[in-house]
């Protein structure tokens, strides 16, 4: 993958895009279970690696994945259950079809009080329980989002090493760990 291409092919039918828009959740981030009751962690998830959206478009949400594909926890079990996979594919479809709209919604959502701890702790957001920074525009949207929410600590694991070396390392957002 180069820096300006992404890993999704095909064109969304307008009706399918309208349907996806009507199914968008109020909150894009889901709470994660934590062993520490006072710790608040939320997550954003895409489907892992390759697949096909309900409208027929094929995708690769982990374009630089290697041997990890064979061991990927998100390629089996709970992640592949119908409703779970469908929700993750809707997330991917949203960023594919309306990245500016998704960025606005995510930016606004992070200002909600549930992302502001009142006890001196910090709310954490895990970016990509599965999936990765699959395109440069998508990564750049996240970089703007990180900087818009200094009250949140973001963290993520990635195989997009070259992309982050070029676009993040020179000026890393303080919010990303
Ligand atoms: S990058 Fe992560 S989510 Fe993607 S295939 Fe590898 S282990 Fe799975």
TrEMBL record:
InterPro entries hit by this protein: Gp88
Residue ranges constituting the Gene product domain according to the UniProt record: 45-176
Domain of life per record: Bacteria
Protein name: Gene product 88 domain-containing protein
Organism: Streptomyces tremellae
Native organism taxonomy: Bacteria, Bacillati, Actinomycetota, Actinomycetes, Kitasatosporales
């Amino acid at each position: 993958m180069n820096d300006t291409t992404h890993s999704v092919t095909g064109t969304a039918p307008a009706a399918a895009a309208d349907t996806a828009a009507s199914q968008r959740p109020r909150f894009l981030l889901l709470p994660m279970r934590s062993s520490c009751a006072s710790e608040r962690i939320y997550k954003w998830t895409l489907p892992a690696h390759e697949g096909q959206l309900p409208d027929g478009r094929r995708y690769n949400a982990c374009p630089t994945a290697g041997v990890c594909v064979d061991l990927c926890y998100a390629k089996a079990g709970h992640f592949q259950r119908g409703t779970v996979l469908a929700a993750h594919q809707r997330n991917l479809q949203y960023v594919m079809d309306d990245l500016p709209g998704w960025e606005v919604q995510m930016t606004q959502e992070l200002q909600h009080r549930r992302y502001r701890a009142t006890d001196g702790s910090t709310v954490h957001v895990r970016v990509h329980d599965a999936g990765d920074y699959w395109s440069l525009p998508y990564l750049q949207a996240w970089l703007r989002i990180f900087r818009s929410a200094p009250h949140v600590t973001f963290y993520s694991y990635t195989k997009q090493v070259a992309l982050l070396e070029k676009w993040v390392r020179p000026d890393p957002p303080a919010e990303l760990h």
